[in-house]
Amino acid sequence: MNFCTWIFAWSVAAATGEKPAPVDKLDVPAFLGRWYQTYGSFSVKYATELGADCVYVDYGALSNSSAISLVNSVQVFGHRVSVEGFAVPSPDRVGIFDVSLGPPGLAPKAPEPFRKSNYIVLMLGPRVGGKYDYAVVTDPTFLSLYVLVRDVSRFGRLHEAGVLDKVSQMGFTSFLNRPRRTNQHGCKYSDKDGTAVVV
User: Fold this and answer.
1) Which one in 88, 99, 154, 188 has a CA-CA gap of 20 to 30 Å to 72?
2) Contact assessment for residue 23 and residue 89, using Cβ atoms and an 8 Å cutoff
3) Whose CA is closest to 143, among 12, 3, 37?
């Protein structure tokens, strides 16, 4: 972390008076599957995702590990780009993961042991069809924000206003970490089932 990033992270923590707190309970099978990103922070949209549209992620189970397989997919300048990796749960606390991703075409071959938190599940929506309907995710510095949903239209009707209000109350209000809408209109997606077990 460079000096400017450290100063920003410190100022966010000072302003909110607390660090990101993960959810108390997380049922992994209800968390797996396809998620569509409806909002991301500046650091997510323009650093990690390069201003991409039609962002989604598939989370899957592994047959021989508690880790979760993941495929992040974005559309940049009309081209679909995907990266793969793993999310390894913290052995000490629910809702905290160590996520590692390879560059496109060079995914890690196997999950590594948990080393440090870089993915914190802050909020989970009600279950619909056995799956959490939305999730809000950040990192220990509060620099990143992801709002992930199962159904974009349903989220907009039922949950969007309330979720945006809650993330604002949590301190996601600065230029770098406030939620910015991710375009999900006119998108074409793969039909891959992200809940499939990887052997």
Assistant:
1) 154
2) no
3) 12
**Of 36, 54, 29, residue with least CA distance to 148:** 36
- Over its length of 199 residues, how does the chain's per-residue pLDDT go in tens digits? 443 443 344 344 444 456 779 999 999 999 999 999 999 999 898 877 777 899 999 999 999 999 999 999 999 888 888 999 999 999 999 999 999 998 887 889 999 999 999 999 999 999 999 999 999 999 999 999 999 999 999 999 999 999 999 999 999 999 999 999 999 998 988 765 544 433 2
Q: Are 102 and 108 in contact (CB under 8 A)?
A: yes
Which whole-number Å values give the CA distances from 170 to 17, 64, 138, 161, 194, in the listed order? 10, 36, 11, 14, 30
Task: For residue 101, give both structure tokens.
Answer: 């991703």
Q: Which top CATH class is 23-181?
A: mainly beta
